[in-house]
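Ticket #4471: complex job returned nothing on first submit. Input attached below:
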Amino acid sequence: MIVLQILASGILLGGIYALISVGLNLIFGVIKIVNMAHGEFLMIGMYAAYFIYTATQINVGLISIIIFPLMMVLGYIIYRLVIKPLLGTAETETNTILATSGLTFVLQNLALMLWTADYRAIKTPTSSQSFSLGKIMLSVDRTYAFLICLVLVIVLYYILMRTRFGAKVRAVSQDKNAAILMGINVNFIYALTFCVGIALVGVAGAIITPIFSVYPSVGVFFGTASFIVVVLGGLGSFTGALLGGLIIGLVETAAGVLASAELAQVFSLLLFLLVLFVKPQGLLGKNARV
Amino acid sequence: MKKITSILLSVALVLSLAACGGDSKDSSGDAASSGAEAETSGEINVYVGVEEPLTGANASLGTAEYNAIELCVEMLNEKGGVLGQYPITYETVDTQSDAATGASEVERLITTKGVPVVIGSYGSGIAAAVSEVCERYDTLLWEQSGAADTLLQNGYEWTFRTESMASLWGATSVDYIVDQADYVKEVLGKDIPELKVAIIHEDGSYGTAVGQGNHAAAEKIGMDIVAYEAYSSSTLDLSSVIMKLIAAEPDILLLTGYVNDGSLFLKQSQELGFKVPILITHSGGHSVQAFVDAIGDQVNYLLTVDPVACNPKLDSFDPELQETFKEFEKRWTEKYGVKPAHHVEMRAFAQSYLFFTEVAPKAIEEGGAFTAETCRDAILSLELDASKNLMGSDVKYSTPDEPFIDPTLGGTHVGQNIYAGAFINQYFDGELYCVWPEKYGQKEGVLFLPSSSTLSAGVVD
Amino acid sequence: MSEAILQVKGVSKSFGGLKATNDVSFDLYEHEILGIIGPNGAGKSTLFNLITNFYQIDEGDILYKGESIVGLTPDVVCRKGLTRTFQVAKPFSGLTVFDNILVGCLPGSATVAEARDKVDGILEIVKLNDLAHEPGGKLTTLQRKRLELGKALATNPDVLMLDEVMTGLKPHEMEEMMGLVLKLKETKTIMVVEHVMKVVMGISDRIIVLDHGVKIAEGTPTEVTNNPKVIEAYLGRSAKKHA
Amino acid sequence: MLKIENLNVAYGDTQVLWDLSLHVKENEIVTLLGPNGAGKTTLLHTICGLVSPLSGSIIFQGKNLLDIKPYHRPENGVVLVPEGRKLFPKMTVQENLSIAAGKAGVDKDTQDWVFELMPRLAERRKQLCGTLSGGEQQMCAIGRGIMAKPKLLMLDEPSLGLAPLIVEQVFDILTKLKQTGITIFFVEQFVEQSLGISERGYLLEDGRIVLEEDSETMLGNDYVKQVYLGI
Amino acid sequence: MKKQVDAKNKKFILTLVIISVALLACTVIPFSIYVKHIIIQTVFYAFMATAWNMMCGYTGRLSLGHSAYIAVGAYTSLILYRNHNLTPWVGMLLGGILAMALMFLIAFPCFRFGLKGPYFTLSSIAVMEIVRYLLTSMRSLTSGSLGMSLPYHKTNLFHFQFDHKEPYLVVFLIFWLAAVILVWRMERTRYYLEAIREDDDAASALGISVTKNLIKVALMSAFMVALGGTFYVQYYRYIDPITICGPHMATNLALITIIGGSGTLLGPTIGAALVIPISEILRTSLGDKLSGLHLFIYGIVLIVMIIHMPKGVISIPDVIRRKRESKKAHIETTASESGGASNE
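Support reply: We reran it on our side without changes. The output follows.
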């Protein structure tokens, strides 16, 4: 019984982890940069959802549809100002990590100046609601999040694997120069990927706002978690986030019950290191040592 | 070319900032020297430093405290300041929610601005670092919210704390249950030692201290501790903890968390169907508005322990304090559009008010100046009745010669208000009201979660 | 001819099902120049990578001075006296030419000063004195090839494995380089991978020919050039028509 | 058709091509010879825009290519089959072909023709390119080039690493391509064979064109013989 | 050549002497305590960044998790001091050894399996997080998030505590000097590391053991930042897991080094001399005006620096010289006929 509940809770937690990591993974997969400010974009998405919800009381699912284009615009601004100047330089990898680390300062404190440090939370009609599946209890909000994550991954997968546009994106991610030779506008694909990646984080922020309250430094917690998820599942593997999320969710829930809740994250971190050493490309990822 | 211009621009930016930094330093030098001048010329200058975390993880509550102090000074200055004739001035620094930054900023306050008194710090960690700096510079630290037990255990002579320490908050929840022993017996059919208690706390400095208090007090009284568990407040999921609780079937749950994990706990408890007859939370995240926003109606009848009585019965306070209390509420509401949260803003206001209306006048009257020494002397000789303290407890501070031995954990504390107490507050219609001790209780406490609550074990109607 | 300094015995290596090297065996004798030829993709560079342990072999054995060197790391192999150059020259682009060579000298020198003293001599040999203070990344291909050779020489190897150091050189430069290699032969044992036939033919004592990972011929330059299998592999069928 | 004049190209501080001028006429096969490192690949990359020149002009069918964005050049008819194939290894043969087809989408006739030309590809169309053999990959790369409906098809060492039999097939394909009106400009190591199918040849050394001759003449040139056929 | 080397060495020694003398002069000049505090912090961070640079700058392996080793050093010496009254001078050595042990545990697999780029960075962050969780949960030893403070003593060399700033400045200066000289004297290793950073295959082909050298400097770096951990405790007198083992500290070391110039001898020092005062000035001038503004500007300055000056401030003279040279060279080459190359 408890095993089933651990499984269920773990999978739902995994859904949240996966949800907040999809965008990060997309960006890494295509542009090959690690966005250290990922958690901060999530925070901005959460604020956006908070303000829209308090003003309109509409469903967060709908809110995320509004947030998507807004976050794309923000993504584009950041892309132009911070990311693009660093692409194609000698140390793109290192410099983007550092520049996006700097970006965490900027975004966190921008949020602080604009919206103060107060915690903000919304309560939706579904919050704290759950339904039972046999003897297992499932949270409505988390199930929502899980389903939306699933939908996002499927849609993303469909777009990438089945559409012409997706093929272009994959082409760019596999060989940038060959893509240019095929008449693909790589810069455009990069910019768009970054924007969509950021927009996906924004959507994730909107979806989890009924579950977590938002404040300027909330992103810090999510940032590290999503890196672990993404590396575990495979940096750049478009379905890797889901797998990584589920693994981390299950490991943390099980470790929390069987060992201690406080050290649950240590287990997932150790697993993460183990995977790095044994199969650094992640469980579904591409070769990391090249 | 573009590159060069942007380099030049950034260099210019840096230089201009450096320049304005230089300016401020000059002016600070002036301030320090003018402070010194004032002292020698015998003029009394009520000048203090305020240090709060205005950015970083604790920025929310740090800013709230800062606003309360600001309003306190504003209200007093309108009446002419301390003793009606010495206006209060202050310098503010941002500790960035970081102990090292806090220490260096306070050192700067002391050494360049020459403040004799520092008021702050919100976080216990920052308070610990700051108290050490104050000790080195013989500067007074009027600590308003660093509740960790360890803060005053170093024997430092310059740090004073008016409110109770965190372990006492933890002990108070047990005391409250013991106080209601008969009622508990009646409902649950168990004597106190038969009660199964679960203690869950976040593993930050605050939760840990309260949890220790819970544990020590429950153990002393012989309760059956069925769970004693910490979790990280950054967690996204508490289902594992709740599953353990469901298995342990406690009669009492003592819970300490911050906003996010606190509300997460309640939401997930409900989702997973956890039920418990008695639930007592401990201040921190459980008393702030975002917590109420997050869990909505479910907040009602939730008990929480705070170092201050929320919406207290005002009768027992001096009439003047009653007025001040109402005035503060009114002005805060006007200024910020919401009622002040008692456990944060009122608590900060109450302690600053105590300092400027009891300590500072005494220092000036008895010592003839407003310096760290005169203030310290004033504090050490201070003895107040609870009616003079908006925090709701008598006031007398322990000294190095007569340290305060903490009844819960047995620690030795210097500079602690030995009468400081903690209060049981309860949510009614989304607002906290003091329910225990009865002296301040505006409403009758509801010990068992009523059946309307989703976590109710259904032991009472 | 003295005894074999390096013996390659039945070495095979596959990459994802593709046999890059298939049961290749040969011996290398002291103070000889052994040429390895074969069309692009025949597995010449792979062979170098296997001998120097950049890749681990799947099957077979490699003996250096009678001792198996399989499973060692490349740096150990180098310190034992087997040094290779890379086909695509790998200068340390942030370091100056001088420092590039110096790095090669360091492992075999007791002090940095001692190593520094050796550098000029090597710069002389590879004719890079004038560029000593240019960063390695700024060199032309030709200069890079020379630097690559210089770095290898810096480790003072017994066996020097040159991977296409002449490709890309103009005829007179090639002659010069050939002269240099021949001179080095006095003190060293040399393996060259080249696909400029003239070079290999001109300097090699013996030649082995690889095609698709298999050794298809071995012998003196004349023997090899007359081998029909070689002609077909190396020049394709149309060449046969011409011939 | 293609006219390059006074082209200078540098990577950072290192100049690779020096005042290079050459031309390719309509429906011609032109071979570019030269030792490794002479700048052949750089020249091809400059023509398709992966590298920008310091100075000079590249005129293609009267248009200045340098004014056209690199990713617009394929639709203008300038297509390169790069050295080492550069296929997208995690995409299927079909996807690799489709992606080259540009905005117009996959042209059924062209695709059928590609499959007719290279039947192996038709068999492998659902297979990931990373798992193809070297020869199949080269076929796929050429097929991908054709799918873009080039007017000028450039190939960078199409025979690299291929078995002689396959090399021959590749050259056959090039001849067939020419028959359909595609102009071909390519870099090769197999001097005899490549000059065998081409009309003219250029010899590039150290970033400069040192020789321009008819293929026949070039084959007979002593210098070329000495350096490149040096048996 | 030898002469050039000697001249370079002389210049370097002279620079060190000038900096040291200037800093020692600071102990005599009656600066305000706050200014001295900034100077001390600058020297402290110069030391730490030098240690970070030794591993990460020279090898190009970006660690954002060095806090773990700082924390191990700090906690070890503080716990030994509090519980066993062991002088921090000895405690810090033990802390350093413990930090080295931890580093070995991580570095060995990391370098053995050739972890690079973002994977290395993320693994370093993971290690830091693990150490922090452990420090937080080992409450009986570390008092968890409550943090630990240093028992206060008046000036006492045995306890490594001073009432005045100057002794700290002198101690940190000595260690900074030792660190810089150590890195300087490790000339051979520096060459190896630079070669490894540029191309580890090419380096190993020249007989350089990549794994061994990387692990060696990783251990040295861990040892040094662990000493820094003890300094931190002795100077700030309070530590808790999040301040000493959080991302902030580690990221700062990286940013300081890169802004100064990573992989250079004095880059970290220059970086510290810029970043620490600037962030202090920003905080003091803007910190009480609009909360967040100073860190907002700090972040922007960092981003601008990384975009426009990725090689750090130390490269400015180089950049200027190269600009001038290339202008000259261009004029020459267009005139001449020789040379020519390709980059295929």
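The interface with chain C takes residues 1-2, 5, 187-188, 191-192, 194-195, 197-199, 201-211, 339-344 of chain E (CB under 8 Å). Closing as resolved unless it happens again.
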